[in-house]
Amino acid sequence: MINYVYLVPLFPLIGFLINGIFWNKMPKTLAGLIGSGTILASFAVSLGIFFEVKSATFQGPVIVTLFDFIQSGKLNIPFAFQVDALSALFLLIITGVGFLIHVYSTSYMHHDEGMVKYFAYLNLFVFSMLLLILGANYLIMFIGWEGVGLCSYLLIGFWFKNRDYTNAAKKAFVMNRIGDLGFLVGMLLVLYYFGTLSYKDFFGQLSAAPANMSSVYGWIALCFFIGATGKSAQIPLYTWLPDAMAGPTPVSALIHAATMVTAGIYMIARSNVLYSLAPGTLHIVAIIGLATAILAATIAIRQYDIKKVLAYSTVSQLGFMFLALGVGAYTTAVFHVMTHAFFKALLFLGSGSVIHAMGGEQDIRKMGGLGRHMRITQLTFLVGCLAISGIPGLSGFFSKDAILTAAYAHDPILYFLGVVAAMMTAFYMFRLYYLTFTGGFRGTEDQHHHLHESPAAMTMPLVVLALLSIVGGYVGMPEVFSEHNLFDEYLKPVVTNFGEHHLAAGTEWMLMGISVAVSVVMIMVAFTMFRKPSFSPSTGLAKLLENKWYVDELYDSAIVRPIQSLSALLDRFVERMGIDGIVNGVGKTVKWGGDRLRLLQSGQVGFYIFIMVIGMVALFTISFFWVH
Question: Do 275 and 498 contact (CB within 8 A), yes or no?
Fold first, then answer.
């Protein structure tokens, strides 16, 4: 099955081409079937590959070369895919969760006039992410990396008639280009110092490289991390992700759960050999990740747009993943990627179900009591909230606890700050749950009249994701529960953790108890505060949080406006008065001279003879003086 790995990205590419070419003729139902069917086919192949990789007879990684891509002198970069434990796992996450989102979209987008084009973009998005995951070298990864950036632009600005939505799409595109420049510089450094972009050759050279190359490792790792901060929305390049809520809700689920934002985590986990040789960069990764987790959590506490709360939640959870990467717990970060994909896709699709029932309303202040009308959505959303809050027995508990444990083993301060972020997570998620599903309805009478549960095409993916959010964490149970951590053992041939993360059983139980206790307390606090909510204008710190610490305004004042002012000056004095002035001046001078010279053509023969005589005299005079 591994030899047919090219079919995994090929199926969604075919779906994109069919729906893209015939977008104005294709029936909506058929477009949904093609879009969803191609992802299901990819999932089936991915499942076969996963079980083959998991088998005892697998000797990996396996490189499947399709054709020579770039060949110049000694440089040879093939268009090749690498199949191993890490790529096989991500294939399942992307195609499995992606398929559920496609099925959900067949109902959610059915009344949209651009549904066929939407499915074409969605298929292209999945294709790009699969290319990113499967690439056997950094160049193929970079092609997929840029592909998901393009698709995010197309899908965030899908409803392009709304200027705010197109601005959000442009913001995502530009901020990702900033990060991508860092990734590109890192690739060039790898090519310059090691002469290859292949994972196998590069990591092999790292193992044998001299110790005096440590500064080079650090710079390459730092450049790669800059790329990751863009794709995976970390400080300072995180502000595009909350604005990405402008796109259709299933797009938000795909971006936040299964594709784009996980790219940075994957890239660092894939490059774990490099990062283990650059401990200074790892420390930066941990600090940035923890700071992002806390900052985003504080903002989520005071947001009222249901999707914005979930967006800042994603930024915060990504911060947890980078914290795990920064302390060298690479497999733990990947584990949280998997569990987060389950419950975050569930939460976003659940919010889409709510928005669908509310006729497009996203303000949770105008909701309340929806649980009585949307029982399936309420129960599945509750599962997602419990999972992300780290309640025992659900997937988020195992992955969050593993991150906090690794942080404690590295530095107890990181653990306690991580617990603070986890406390806020439980608070803002249950604030969202209580304001949306409990209490009395606060919307209009017309909205109340039309409240209803979503159709089966939307609720069935919710049920499946809720089940995965419950059982998905048991493959990574820590050693205090099981003799072996199956998830770590599965990834061990590809991903080697850096540093020692084992603690005494008593210490682990204590750490788990602290994190669970504070989460439960925060859930109770949220219940007390929001079972009978009252809303008043924000002041002081609350206003600061509601306005997202004014980071966007700071960026606008410190970066955007100065650049716009500089651009205006360059436009006026360099472009118009300088370059245009010179070009236009030459043209005007030639035209002026021509206008004057044409007057010599009077049509009078006597005048022409006079000019000839004058010319001859002039020539004789010049010749006389030249000779003498």
Answer: yes
